[in-house]
């Protein structure tokens, strides 16, 4: 589904929350919490391997559909039959079946309707008087009347005999009808245009609920925000519409010669070998066409290995197409269907070009596109995805039409190919898709619409107190948080993994492997986490925990910077601290007065046992500024401490360590330290061990390793050591 939140809004939120953030007590970094063991809740099973692959006994059930419906244009009504062949591949005999009746969301008394706020929602209108939902005429199972019951958007069918495990098959036939809402939760609907209504039809037939090895039957109701979880199979659809209509649908049109004129068929053939868009039915032809239907036409489609089927029908469609070139040498076809209102080269006139570019990019980058056509339809949805066909808003133009087209077709990979459970794990399709869209947009037409987004400035947006964790169920988060939690934050998480943690090559290899393992299957978040860790060879539980499971913040800062012994030629001592709860590999850029710079990278392991870290940069020049995360790759809740200006730092005065020598005692705790100058450095001798001390200025000496910090009084006769908030004073003997 389309991202519903625009970039300027993000910046607005970000500015707003900066001021809010500072007023709250921040939780401290705890490295044991961040890196604790036993991240995974389950060990490997027969169905899911510890490496993230499907297990040696992985199974999933199968649903094949034969759909036969008619459209009543006047009443906006669909009626017909759905024949389902259901195969039970599980280890369990099944006593009953569950089906999804998504149209029941549009009944006035549905659970989803009850959740619509007075102030309005993307998923419906609380003041609407529309009464939708399925009318079920009959349900037959293997030819006999079935016993069934309906609760909200679910239907349960009782089986007289078990459906046998490991391959048992049953046939379900449902006669049904429904009146389509004009605006179907931003996912389907009916839109009037000057040359006729556009019907964008989805969630339009009873579909099998998924029976899996995680939950058994997945029966969460359709409430609006939570999308879909569906079985794979083949679908054939016969769709009867007024003869003036043109129909586009998932998969391949089987009877082109029956529904298109000879001239149109010739144009289709031209499009099949053309990289440039070929008009099949022009705006002029649409405007001149008769508006009065002479009877009906039946359009027949077929799509294999699919989790759904959607279609659109209208007398108003301009249709155009171009060839899609796939990496294997196979071809597919990019098709667009839109009304004259959407025509024009700054609008839907480029839709097929966008579709072709998007599918070609994703096929090359991740996995080859599997379907014979990819169709973009102009409707009244913001943007919604289905196998082989997407609906984008008819008013979208230019950059926004590219953005929504690319996003909806990106969904072919997540979740149409990689069939995760959208209703529970919305971030696994929207977030992954948002991530791949960024790379695709960068790639399209030399970056025509690409603007690099600074992740660094998004810290206060991602880590806002008002957001739930990313792994929250879509129906379990506030509607206004859906943009951040399902799209932007998990999308940015993938970018951080790619650019900061693993590097492009390792990350892309791991994500490709995940797609390959789980193509046309049902992965869980753990399968994803495990695959990325296994393929990249990197332990990432700290990142999964902080970014996805919790709402840990990122904030690293520079505490101090001093030249070694006050001499810039000897190098620079930097002290950095991890203030946020989520650690990250650190990149420091030291900029010198002569305009040159030096970069130092610290691995994540630095934060596995430290909350702050002091290290030497082997530089020999005078420093001007020091910057953390110089490329701005990491969101950070406090950018102030990311930059350190050397001019603000008073140079450390030169000292003579001999002046600090002596034996010092504290009577109260009965302790004695000897301080001795050696090699131009002061050393603390204790129990015959010698600890070299670095001078920090203002009478302060430290030894980082031993955690020693001594502060001398001006007269050098006493020093204090601070430990556990207690001060101990030592006096020269
Ligand atoms: Zn989406």
TrEMBL record:
One GO biological process term: peptide catabolic process
Cellular component, GO, one term: extracellular space
Pfam families xref list: Peptidase_M1
Residues spanning the signal sequence: 1-22
Keywords annotated in UniProt: Signal
Chain ranges of the Peptidase M1 membrane alanine aminopeptidase domain: 355-547
Protein name: M1 family peptidase
């Amino acid at each position: 589904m389309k991202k519903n939140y625009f970039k300027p809004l993000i910046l607005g939120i970000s500015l707003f929350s900066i001021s809010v953030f500072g007023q709250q007590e921040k939780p401290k970094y705890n490295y044991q919490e961040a890196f604790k063991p036993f991240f995974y809740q389950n060990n490997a099973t027969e169905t899911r391997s510890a490496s993230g692959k499907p297990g040696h006994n992985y199974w999933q059930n199968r649903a094949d559909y034969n759909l036969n419906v008619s459209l009543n244009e006047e009443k906006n009504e669909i009626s017909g039959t759905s024949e389902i062949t259901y195969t039970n591949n599980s280890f369990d005999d099944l006593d009953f079946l569950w089906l999804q009746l998504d149209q029941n969301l549009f009944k006035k008394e549905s659970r989803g309707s009850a959740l619509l706020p007075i102030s309005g929602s993307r998923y419906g209108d609380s003041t609407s008087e529309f009464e939708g939902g399925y009318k079920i005429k009959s349900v037959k199972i293997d030819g006999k009347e079935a016993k069934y019951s309906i609760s909200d958007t679910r239907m349960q069918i009782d089986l007289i005999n078990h459906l046998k495990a490991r391959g048992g098959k049953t046939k379900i036939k449902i006669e049904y009808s429904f009146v389509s809402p004009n605006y179907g939760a931003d996912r389907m609907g009916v839109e009037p245009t000057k040359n006729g209504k556009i019907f964008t039809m989805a969630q339009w037939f009873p579909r099998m609920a998924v029976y899996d090895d995680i939950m058994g039957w997945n029966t969460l109701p359709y409430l609006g925000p939570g999308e879909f979880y569906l079985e794979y199979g083949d679908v054939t659809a016969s769709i009867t519409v007024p003869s003036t209509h043109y129909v586009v649908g998932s998969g391949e049109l089987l009877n082109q010669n029956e529904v298109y004129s000879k001239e149109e068929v010739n144009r289709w053939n031209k499009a099949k070998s053309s990289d440039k868009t070929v008009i099949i039915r022009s705006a002029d032809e649409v405007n001149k066409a008769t508006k009065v239907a002479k009877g009906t036409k039946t359009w027949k489609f077929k799509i294999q290995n699919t989790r759904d089927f959607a279609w659109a029908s209208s007398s108003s469609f301009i249709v155009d197409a171009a060839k899609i070139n796939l990496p294997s040498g196979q071809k597919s076809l990019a098709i667009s269907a839109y009304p004259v209102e959407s025509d024009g080269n700054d609008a839907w006139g480029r839709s097929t070009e966008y579709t072709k570019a998007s599918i070609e990019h994703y096929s090359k980058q991740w996995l080859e596109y599997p379907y014979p056509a990819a169709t973009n339809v102009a409707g009244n949805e913001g943007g919604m995805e289905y196998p082989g066909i997407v609906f984008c808003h008819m008013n979208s133009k230019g950059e926004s039409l590219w953005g929504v087209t690319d996003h909806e077709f990106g969904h072919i990979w997540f979740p149409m190919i990689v069939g995760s459970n959208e209703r529970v794990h919305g971030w696994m399709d929207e977030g992954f898709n948002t991530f791949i869209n960024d790379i695709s947009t960068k790639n399209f037409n030399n970056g025509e619409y690409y603007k690099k987004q600074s992740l660094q400035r998004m810290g206060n947006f991602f880590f806002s107190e008002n957001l739930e964790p990313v792994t929250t169920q879509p129906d379990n988060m506030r509607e206004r948080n859906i943009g951040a939690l399902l799209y932007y934050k998990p999308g940015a998480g993938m970018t951080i993994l790619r650019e900061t943690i693993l590097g492009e090559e390792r990350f892309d290899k791991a994500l490709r492997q995940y797609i390959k393992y789980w193509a046309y299957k049902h992965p869980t978040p753990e399968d994803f986490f495990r695959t990325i860790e296994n393929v990249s060879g990197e332990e990432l539980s700290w990142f999964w925990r902080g970014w996805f499971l919790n709402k840990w913040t990122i904030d690293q800062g520079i505490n101090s910077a001093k030249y070694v012994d006050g001499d810039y030629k000897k190098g620079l001592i930097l002290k950095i601290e991890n203030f946020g709860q989520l650690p990250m590999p650190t990149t420091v850029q030291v900029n010198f007065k002569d305009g040159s710079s030096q970069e130092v990278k610290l691995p994540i392991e630095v934060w596995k046992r430290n909350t702050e870290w002091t290290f030497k940069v082997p530089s020999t020049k005078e420093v001007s500024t020091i910057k953390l995360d110089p490329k701005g790759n990491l969101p950070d809740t406090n950018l102030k401490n990311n930059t350190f200006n050397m001019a603000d730092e008073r140079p450390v005065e030169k000292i003579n360590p001999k002046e600090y020598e002596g034996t010092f005692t504290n009577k109260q705790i009965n302790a004695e330290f000897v301080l001795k100058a050696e090699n131009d450095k002061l050393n603390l001798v204790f129990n015959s061990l010698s600890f070299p001390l670095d001078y920090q200025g203002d009478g302060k000496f430290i030894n980082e390793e031993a955690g020693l910090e001594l502060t001398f009084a001006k007269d050098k006769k006493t020093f204090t050591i601070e430990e556990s908030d207690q001060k101990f004073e030592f006096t020269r003997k």
